[in-house]
Each structure stands twice: as C-alpha cells, then as structure tokens.
C-alpha cells in the first residue's frame, strides 16, 4: 500500500513542551543536523499518522512571536514566511502552553493569519488545572477557527487525537479560517494593497511582514526596489504597525480568555515553584546552592566518566597489543596500530564525558534549574562582556571544551556567544589533569601548609582558578575588539520545576555523542594520522644511521629490552617531529624547555594528555600505574651543562604553558564548525599560544 507523506512543522514558544511532543511523536525515528548557514540544531523525524499517511516532522526553534531577534528565531520565521527553499510544510502543529495561554496565543494567532493550515496542540493542561485554570476546548476551537487538541506527551495522552486532526487538516477536512483574527488590512491599508499587487499570493498579514523584513528575504533586486518604493510612498512606520498589531491581538485574546477560560485570582496563587524560588534565588543562599550544584556537576562528570573511559582505553590498548603481536612489523601495521587505532581511541575516549555532561545539563534544563543558573550569574558575566547563559559552557569546560563550545549555541547574542567560544578553552579541561599530576608530583614537595592543606592540592586548585580568572579577563579585553553591533537582551523565562524526562535525557546524550564522533572525529583522525607520519618518518640518511646503530647494538645481545627503548627514542629524535623539536628549541629555551619538551608540545597538539606518553617514550621508560619510573627518570634528566632539566622554575613554567596553550585539535575543529569560519579558530590558537608563551616566560624568569 502506498503511503501519502505529509510534511509537518512543529512550532511554539520556548518551554512550551514542543521538544517533548517531538520526541513523543517520532521516538527514535529522528536525526539531528544543522539548518543551512547557521549553527542551530535541525531536528527531523517521522511518525505514522494513519494506515495510509506518514508524517515527516521538523522541530522548528522556539520563538515568542513573528518578530525575530535571535538567530534561531530567524530560522523559524523564514520557514513561516515561505522564504526557506528547503523546508515547506503542509501542516503546522502550534504547541501552546495551557498554563501561559495568553502569551502563547499571540504567536498562534499570527500563524493563523498567515493563512497556514494549523492544528493547536495544548500542552501542560495538568499544570493549568493545578493553578486553577479551566479551559473550554470547544469554545477555544470556535473562537480560533482551528482544531484544538489537549495532549500530554509524557503520558502519551491525546497523541492519537492529535494525529487524527493533522490527517484531517492535511486532507482539507479542516479549512484555513477565511476571516483574519484581527483586521490586519487596517494596520496599513494603502501599503498592504500596493504590496499585494507586487506579491499576489501574500495574505494581508504576510504583506505586513514583507514590508517590515523584505530586506532579509531572498527576492529579486527589482522587487526589493519596488517594495522599498511602496514603503516610501506611504511613509510606512514599522514600529507603529508592529505595536498596533500586538495591542489588537492581545485585546482580542483577552476577550477569548473571558469566554473560554476560567482563571482564579492570581493573588491567591502560591505554587511550589514560587516557594522553591524563594530559596534557590535567595540573595545569599541562592549563590551557595549554585556553587554546590556546580561542584556536584563538576565532580560527577569526572567520577562517572572515569570508569567507562578506563574501559575504552583498556579496550583499545588490548586491541593494539593483540594486533602488534599478530601483525608483521611493517609500515602499514604501524600505521594501523599507532595511527588509525590510536586516533580512533583518542576520539571515542571522550564520548563518555560528552554523554554524561550533556545528560546532566539536560537534567538541569528539564528540572528548570538551568534558567536559574543563568539568572544568578548574569551580573558577573555581563561585566566582562558575556551574559548569564555563558556560565554553563564555562563550567562545562572543566570536563571538556568540545561539548562546552557546542553548548554555547543557547546564547542568542552573536558577540556574547563568540566571546564564550573564544575563552572557554582557557578553562582547565580533564585532558590537562594527567599533565598537572605528573608535573606537580615532579617539582612540588608533598608537604602541608598550616598543617592541614596539602601544597600539591593547593597548586592544583590554583591552576584551575588561574584558567577561570584568565578567561574572564580575556573576555573583558576582547569585547572591545569584536565589533558586532547587536543589542543584548537577557530576557529569560523561568520555567516551572518539574521531574526530568529520562527518554529526553538519553536521546540527547546519544545525539550529542553522534555529532561529536561524526563531525569533530573526522578532523581528529586526520591530525592523528599526520602526527603519526611526522613521528614515524624522517630524512632517509638519519633514519638509516639510527637503524644501523640499532642493528649493531642488537647484535651484541646485551640488554635487548633497553636497546629497543633506546632505538624508539632515537627514531623519535630523528623523525620529522624530532627535527621540528630541535628547530623550535632556541625559541622555547627562554621558557626552560629543551627539544624533548618541544616534541611533547608538538605531539600533545592532538590531545594534551599525549604529553605523558611522549615523555615516557623520550625517556625510554615504560609507564606504570603510579608513574613513578617516569617521574624518577624525568628528575634525573639533565641539560647539556649538567644541571637538572626539571627544576621548580621549569615545572611551573610548563604547567602554566599547559593552562593557557591551545593544544587540542578537536577544540579548534568544533570552533570552526560552530563559527562557520577558520578566522576564529586561528585567532583562538594565536592568542592562546601567545598568552601561554608570555606567561610561561614570566614564571620561568621569576623562579629560575
């Protein structure tokens, strides 16, 4: 049997239950991409409407009205005004929050006046009842002229009726209301009449939007000029027209509410959310609770992710070891083991952190606390050029900058979003932790300050605080150089507190992991293979000399294991990466670094934690669980003049370098993806490397 396909667009206000309904309708039959030209998530899926009809659903970004301000609102606006060539909808499901009916109906009535086939899905009816709000669905349906269906996506209530209404609307059993919700033509009769001569298919209301926003539409130049001429002829006033329209809509909505809705006296309402906000948004306790929540989030990401990360690392290590024993010692086996498998391991090992981080963030969003975090931190963030919504990407950066930068999409203002992306990598991520641990153990004595504070722990805390403070400082400075003239409005709706939707949490975790592996993963793989090549090959004469020395030493039969380690170290020193290390040595000597540290800086560019593995190879030492052999060997390392290499000054200089340096290809790849330009990753890499060099130089000169 051949199925008819209906294209459905899901629209509504933010926090109206739109995502819940989308997940309920599509289940796992959904995919996440991007709308062309912007980094706004594009969620699509499919659902069965009846035996003969299938619905392809697109979840459009939430918006409060047809007057867009944010990037994601423009995406929805272009679809509704038929200006998106790729997305055309046969039916629009407008999701309306029953507990905030007046505000939600504004957007709904605007879509109705665009003469779109609309089905109104009324969500949160149970919450409205708890507030004492009673809605007469039949009366509301008569007043609006479109089908109204009460749904509860969490409990699957009303979903069958909603699908039936969509099927009937698609089959033209429900007609688009002939009469406008308000008298749109009266808003600007002359301009609308002239515009409709130029664009005959436009309704009275869509004509208003052509007059206001035609510059943003993809129209022929001649048509743009003619519309501009209409505006000038009638002296069309955008602001006055918009204000008049909104006032008239709310006036009619108020009359409908009097007929179809019964509401209690708002002074009698003191619900659970209000009582909880009195505590969580308290001027003093609110900030202490916030610090506690963020501390638990930070600890949970480390604690929960360490086990699956260890399993993944062990699995890839076992796979590499098995293949090394089975495959012949030729170049392609080395490429497979140390290039491809090592590269894949470097991608997959971050997946647990990304899934857990986004899972926890989704929990905070679902419960309603995320909006409170933004509200509490807005004043501090705004003083350095950011806003309250920047705090979660910054906090997330303590786990991994990659998902943190991806989560900056929630920031509407382009300048504030860009600043957040640029400074987030300064936050010390978990990949820096192995570097900090080995260097602190190497140069900081294990003593106590005031008898109870461990000095090594204090240094560790200082490194994390240093990155956070510098991120705020850099943002404050950078805001004067980024000239994006876009007004910043921190308008935030505080949603009610509710239980998390576990299906939504799980699907978000899976989708974010897919995005990371498929997008950033490609770049990481390529860089890993390039680094393998640079570390495995070198000029022919040099490598031949190393091979000859190895064969001669091997022929003696003395301490073969040590000979093999020396051979690996000599090969690395004479590889292209090693030559590069020697080349940059004069530039990094003022920081207290030598060529071996230089090689580590280069190889750890793919991932900072590679530093430890590179050090182990360079010093011809196998790593053990406690890293003692490696630390002992590093302590014994000497400069050409016989003085110790890893002094307090060198150790602190190297730690500070890793706090500030941009040594993460995946972060640069995600920055490129989010900003749609190589300009910002280059700026990010340049300023962070320069800052790392200057701060390391300062620290080394002070402590040497």
UniProtKB/TrEMBL annotation:
Entry-linked InterPro entries: Fe2_transport_prot-B (IPR003373), Fe2_transport_prot_B_C (IPR011640), FeoB_GTPase (IPR050860), G_FEOB_dom (IPR030389), Gate_dom (IPR011642), GTP-bd (IPR006073), P-loop_NTPase (IPR027417)
Keyword annotations from UniProtKB, A to Z: Cell membrane, GTP-binding, Ion transport, Iron, Iron transport, Magnesium, Membrane, Metal-binding, Nucleotide-binding, Transmembrane, Transmembrane helix, Transport
Superkingdom of the source species: Bacteria
Main location as per UniProt: membrane
Signal sequence, renumbered to the chain: none
Positions with a binding annotation for Mg(2+): 23, 26-27
Domain FeoB-type G: 5-172
Annotated membrane topology: Multi-pass membrane protein
Subcellular location: Cell inner membrane; Cell membrane
One Gene Ontology molecular-function label: metal ion binding
CDD domains: FeoB (cd01879)
Membrane-spanning segments: 285-305, 335-364, 384-406, 418-444, 456-478, 515-534, 642-662, 682-703
Chain sites annotated for binding GTP: 12-19, 37-41, 59-62
Pfam families, per database record: FeoB_C, FeoB_N, Gate
GO cellular component: plasma membrane
Similarity remark: Belongs to the TRAFAC class TrmE-Era-EngA-EngB-Septin-like GTPase superfamily. FeoB GTPase (TC 9.A.8) family.
Record's function text: Probable transporter of a GTP-driven Fe(2+) uptake system.
Protein name: Ferrous iron transport protein B
Organism: Flavisolibacter tropicus
């Amino acid at each position: 049997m051949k199925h008819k396909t209906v294209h459905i667009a899901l629209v509504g206000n933010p926090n109206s239950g739109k995502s819940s309904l989308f997940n309920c309708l599509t289940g796992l039959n959904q995919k996440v991409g991007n709308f062309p030209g912007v980094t706004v998530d594009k969620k699509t899926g499919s659902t069965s409407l009846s035996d003969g009809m299938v619905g392809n659903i697109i979840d459009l970004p939430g918006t409060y009205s047809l007057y867009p301000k944010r990037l994601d609102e423009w995406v929805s606006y272009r679809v509704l005004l038929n200006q998106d060539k790729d997305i055309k909808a046969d039916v629009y499901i407008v999701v309306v929050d029953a507990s905030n009916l007046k505000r939600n109906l504004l957007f709904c009535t605007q879509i109705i006046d665009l003469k779109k086939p609309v089905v109104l899905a009324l969500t949160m009816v149970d919450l409205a009842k708890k507030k004492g709000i009673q809605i007469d669905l039949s009366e509301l349906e008569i007043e609006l002229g479109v089908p109204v269906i009460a749904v509860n996506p969490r409990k699957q209530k009303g979903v069958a009726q909603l699908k039936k209404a969509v099927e009937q609307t698609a089959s033209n059993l429900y007609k688009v209301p002939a009469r406008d919700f308000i008298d749109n033509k009266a808003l600007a009769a002359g301009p609308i009449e002239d515009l409709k001569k130029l664009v005959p298919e436009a309704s009275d209301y869509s004509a208003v939007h052509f007059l206001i926003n035609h510059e943003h539409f993809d129209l022929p130049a001649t048509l743009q000029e003619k519309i501009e001429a209409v505006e000038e002829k009638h002296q069309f006033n955008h602001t006055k027209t918009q204000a008049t329209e909104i006032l008239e809509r709310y006036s009619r909505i108020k009359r409908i509410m009097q007929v179809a809705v019964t509401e209690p006296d708002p002074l009698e309402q003191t619900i659970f959310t209000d009582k909880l906000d009195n505590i969580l948004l308290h001027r003093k306790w609110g900030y202490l609770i916030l610090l506690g929540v963020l501390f638990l989030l930070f600890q949970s990401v480390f604690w929960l992710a360490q086990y699956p990360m260890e399993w993944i690392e062990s699995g890839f290590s076992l796979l590499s070891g098995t293949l090394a024993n089975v495959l012949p010692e030729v170049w392609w086996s080395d490429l497979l083991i140390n290039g491809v498998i090592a590269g894949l391991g470097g991608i997959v090992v971050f997946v647990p952190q990304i899934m857990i981080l986004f899972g926890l963030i989704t929990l905070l969003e679902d419960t309603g606390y995320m909006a409170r975090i933004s509200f509490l931190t807005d004043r501090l963030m705004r003083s350095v050029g950011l806003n309250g919504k920047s705090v979660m990407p910054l906090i997330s950066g303590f786990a991994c900058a990659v998902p943190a930068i991806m989560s900056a999409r929630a920031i509407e203002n382009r300048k504030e979003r860009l600043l957040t992306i640029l400074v987030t990598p300064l936050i010390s991520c978990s990949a820096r932790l192995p570097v900090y641990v080995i260097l602190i153990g190497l140069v900081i004595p294990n003593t106590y300050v005031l008898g109870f504070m461990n000095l090594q722990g204090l240094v560790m805390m200082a490194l994390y605080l240093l990155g956070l403070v510098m991120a705020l400082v850099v943002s404050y400075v950078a805001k004067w150089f980024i000239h994006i003239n876009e007004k910043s409005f921190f308008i935030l709706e505080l949603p009610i507190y509710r239980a998390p939707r576990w299906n939504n949490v799980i699907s978000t975790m899976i989708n974010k992991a897919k995005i990371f592996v498929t997008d950033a993963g490609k770049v990481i793989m390529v860089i890993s293979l390039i680094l393998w090549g640079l570390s495995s090959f070198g000029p022919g004469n040099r490598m031949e000399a190393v091979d000859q020395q190895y064969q001669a030493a091997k022929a003696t039969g003395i301490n073969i294991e040590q000979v093999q380690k020396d051979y690996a170290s000599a090969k690395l020193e004479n590889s292209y990466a090693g030559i590069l290390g020697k080349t940059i040595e004069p530039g990094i000597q003022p920081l207290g670094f030598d060529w071996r540290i230089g090689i580590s800086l280069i190889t750890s560019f793919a991932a900072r934690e590679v530093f430890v593995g590179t050090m182990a190879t360079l010093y011809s030492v196998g790593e053990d669980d406690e890293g003692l052999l490696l630390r002992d060997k590093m302590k014994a390392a000497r400069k050409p003049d016989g003085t110790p290499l890893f002094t307090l000054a060198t150790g602190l200089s190297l730690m500070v370098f890793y706090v500030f340096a941009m040594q993460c290809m995946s972060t640069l790849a995600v920055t490129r993806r989010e900003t749609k330009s190589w300009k910002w990753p280059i700026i990010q890499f340049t300023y962070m490397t320069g800052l790392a060099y200057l701060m390391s130089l300062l620290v080394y000169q002070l402590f040497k």
